[in-house]
């Protein structure tokens, strides 16, 4: 998929006369390719959509050193923050500095956030620590998401800032645990985590949903992702987005979101439809039909920028650029 | 109302050539009729809209045996879950198994969810238990809502799953108590419950609003229902829906939603307008004018599928089918 | 700005034939002018947009007597509520009656709402009380917001009702503290408050955002306001509204909302664009371009009522009238 998009975008770049800055695009494209490693959690999705040569590997992501680095970096950030803000030293000590690993800190932090008077913090910690500890891929996914937030959200000032406070980041991590429990048929527990995450973070992800790595849920309030939805790698989704089903019958009824897609705030994507890799969907759109790869769909109902027959192709990965508005000029009926 | 819709839909079925499967529709229609009992809480609304022969009665709903059955079923489900997931046995014991009645369990569960350091759990329990205990109709409404969720939401795996975790279900039950307090002029208490429900569940229902029975608030985050809004029986409302007012003057200023209506995610219905029984409103729509019964309104601003003069009539109850997308083909300007 | 709008609206009133009731408008206009005092927190914004004669002063707002009065009134309301609802007497005592000042009560109430097991209530109280105590303008802003809610929201029955329970009001007050900390380079603490407010109230306001006085966030769930956004005085914003950025590059990237603007539920305003003073934006709109002062923009994408070339000018301040629907007749393609 990565290679495919990379190749296509080069072609597209030539087709539209090379008007866009070549250097910027190449930089983006390289990052584009680098990130397209199939994610174990969404293997089926990858198999379905991956019809080209295998994508480049994220070599640096899998080494123990990289894992070490990010956790060490977070401890460093926490120390600095605690020093500058002594009133929070207890908070940083409990949350980060007294913890011995990224996964331990995450299990503790999620337990603190999600506990209530009938769900003791210890019970929740045991659940999170148990699942994270048994999953070698879990830490890699946590790291990929932390990097995604830090790189794409200009309002994120440090890894520890994201780790401690970003609702979207924390909701996805809790979801990964719930998804693993769901796979093991521990449905009651998985659904309980879903419900607590929905109450505490306002993010409602069914434990059956498959979410890739390097995913950013920005602001996150009101996001709803249904049971049979699939979200690829390196996707950016804003708050208030629904990946919803239709009908009261079970079965495969939710959207499949390709790698590198950007979905703007308040958008509804409904039904078992595919949003192709590298596509962009504008804010407050309603999408009820397939969106081809690397196109831009906007409006209610959504239309393709450039027209249905020959839609304009994006040459930059929208989830990385986070560009929500550059399509205005081509949105013909915009008359303000 | 039920009879009316039933009759009309048969006619409509013939009019459009009987192309839809007759058996499926009849089953739906029977359930349609069966559910149309005027709800005590929205009696005025029923009186206003009910111009035909009286609807069929929900006989089985009012017998003590049926009440007993659902609670027994929930205890059974809780026992099974606790057995399969010993880490949650304390949670199920406190929430369900140690409780002696459905209303007691509900009062306790709402108190657990809504308490904080300045609102002790005991105070809240006394309030909820008091109102639920004095209201013979309360348990019937709780049961109708539990059944609505279980029957219409394919992601709901058991009554106890809904009871313990569904924000929309819990928000409606807390609202019923707040509404009763509001009717008794205990406004400060009613508004306090509204505020806590808005904080904890992200659902903001003014205690003055009248909500029928058998109502599903799916996902529920971001739902806002104003003071003079009325919601009929057997309505399904998705997350992010606003039944809002207009203007700063008090008085009757919010929408009236008929029985069996389905409202998609993110939709705004504003002003004192009527949405007729059995109508469907698509996701992210903006509805500022009356929507006739059994029609489909979609878009921003909303339009009627089939046109204003001769709108297509639905022959199935949209809140039961939960079909959010079958109108695409008729949504003419949808060009993806 | 106030004078400007005042003058213009008189002219506009003549231009459109004086069909609107003169007396009502004059009353509104007087209040319009009365409220246009530059807010210290958004001085830069004021300086940029203020090209006319200086606005009238809010004399009564700055006197100690007025400050005293509102707090005395709140204590009176709390006493009455506690008397009528003895079950809540402890709640009212802790929250209001045992407090010695408005700012003390606010610091305590925010600490109660935002604390959790890793952020003790005492720590949060010290932070809020410290900042509020050092800021002579803080109490004035709190009062202006309380008055805004009470005057514009017909569902608000008393100051103490708003103070104790309105998520939007509490989120703005917590934001004011976070903004002051942000200005003092105490970023970790400011961002922590942002995150807790987003979790507890579902309102995500970056501490860098500049918010004026007399602002109403009605219902508030799902509101997102970005780092470089500016919101003028006397603005009314409904729930689900996004003042969002575009792109992954930092810098000035969020909307600037003028004084007296009304933004309907679920609307997205994206990018560094200006919404002129006294403009109205309909519910569920998508605004990606500048909206001129005192015009009405509605739809997805938003259009100006009256057309781009000669848009209809409002003669009443939309944030005060809270009129969300009177533009229907002019919204030409609305066909229901």
What features would you describe in this structure?
Chains A, B, C: It comes from Linum tenue. Chains A, B, C: GO terms for molecular function: serine O-acetyltransferase activity. Three copies of one chain form a homotrimer. Chain A is an alpha/beta fold. Chain A has one domain: UDP N-Acetylglucosamine Acyltransferase, domain 1, CATH 2.160.10.10. In chain A, 46% of the residues lie in helices and 10% in strands. In chain A, strands 3-6-9-12-14-15 form a six-stranded mixed beta sheet. Chain A has a five-stranded parallel beta sheet with strand order 1-4-7-10-13. Chain A has a four-stranded parallel beta sheet with strand order 2-5-8-11. In chain A, α5 runs antiparallel to α6, α8 packs across α11 and α11 packs antiparallel against α12. The first copy, chain A, is globular. The two termini of chain A are 38 Å apart. At the A-B interface, α8, α12, β13 and β15 of A face α6 and α10 of B.
